[in-house]
Amino acid sequence: MPEPVIHAENLVKTYRSKGQPEVVAVGGLSFEVAPGESFGLLGPNGAGKSTTMKMIGAVSTRTAGELSILGLDPDRYGPEIRSRLGVVPQQDNLDGELNARENLFIYGRYFGLPAKACHAKADELLAFAQLEDKAKSKVDQLSGGMKRRLTIARGLVNDPRILLLDEPTTGLDPQARHVLWDRLFRLKERGTTLVLTTHYMDEAEQLCDRLIVVDKGRIMAEGSPSALIREYSTREVLEVRFGASRNDEVAPQLQGLGERVEVLPDRILIYAEDGEAVLERVIAEGLEPITSLVRRSSLEDVFLRLTGRSLIE
Ligand SMILES: Nc1ncnc2c1ncn2[C@@H]1O[C@H](COP(=O)(O)OP(=O)(O)OP(=O)(O)O)[C@@H](O)[C@H]1O
Ligand SMILES: [Mg+2]
């Protein structure tokens, strides 16, 4: 592996506030990110994703452990690191009073770029974010997806080696998410290292070369999406619904029909290589599900297997 651009070893962050018990937001994460890689942190609310991103972004100090970004320790080289990173925070923090183009221009000036370069960069990034026709619109008048694209564009003003994206598409509709994914693919093709958090398994599957599954500040598993699915799930899943009142009664009869059975409040999941074959056996047993669906295993199934909980609760 080439020299990693991010190296974290036993990274810990605890929060203390008066009269409150100590919160361990990040409980000892170890991972490395290679140059040009697209690396993900997948986990539910409160897993410690944003806290980790803030430490990588050199805006929050670690409590313990080792952390090096582009070979530099953020405790000592915060400004140098920040100047080489692009950051897309979980909450958009654009200036609502300014228009889209002005937001990009001013951000470039923060980085000390000459005015002429900022104008050129603003135009280039408006095109990249497909926001040319919104250049003069006040940010407050943009849709959620447009704001997200503008925030990503703003994160690219300083031509960063690494772009940190904290939940890039949360709250966006499917079409807006696809537009964003397309933009992120292009960045990846250009060699930008992407580090992103998400609690959408499809986003992680689409964008990440490799990811860590994080829960309660700890790494539960690490690998490429396909390797994780191979390791922790079967090829297919049969989802059957019998109605909330009958699920518990039917579940024991389904044991043994697949490799594993998960009983969720609204449905039962039967893990197997061939879902259709299992469905035939379910029906042969005289059990008539109200609905049935055969699908490929996803990272959601990996998460369920690892934690016993659903990713989006
Ligand atoms: N400034 C803070 N002070 C005290 N506790 C905090 C602070 N920031 C985060 N926490 C706590 O740390 C834990 C991890 O929070 P974090 O924001 O990193 O989670 P997350 O994985 O980003 O979640 P989400 O998906 O909801 O964004 C939570 O228990 C949270 O309440
Ligand atoms: Mg977060």
UniProtKB/TrEMBL annotation:
Species: Microbacterium rhizosphaerae
Hydrolase listed as a keyword: no
Family of the protein in this entry: Belongs to the ABC transporter superfamily.
One Pfam family it belongs to: ABC_tran
Presence of keyword Nucleotidyltransferase: no
Localization of this protein: Cell membrane
PANTHER family, sorted: ABC TRANSPORTER ATP-BINDING PROTEIN (PTHR42711), ABC TRANSPORTER ATP-BINDING PROTEIN NATA (PTHR42711:SF5)
Keywords: Antibiotic resistance, ATP-binding, Nucleotide-binding, Transport
Name listed for the protein in its UniProt record: ATP-binding cassette domain-containing protein
Principal location listed in the UniProt entry: membrane
Highest rank taxon of the organism: Bacteria
Stretches assigned to the ABC transporter domain: 6-241
Membrane topology summary: Peripheral membrane protein
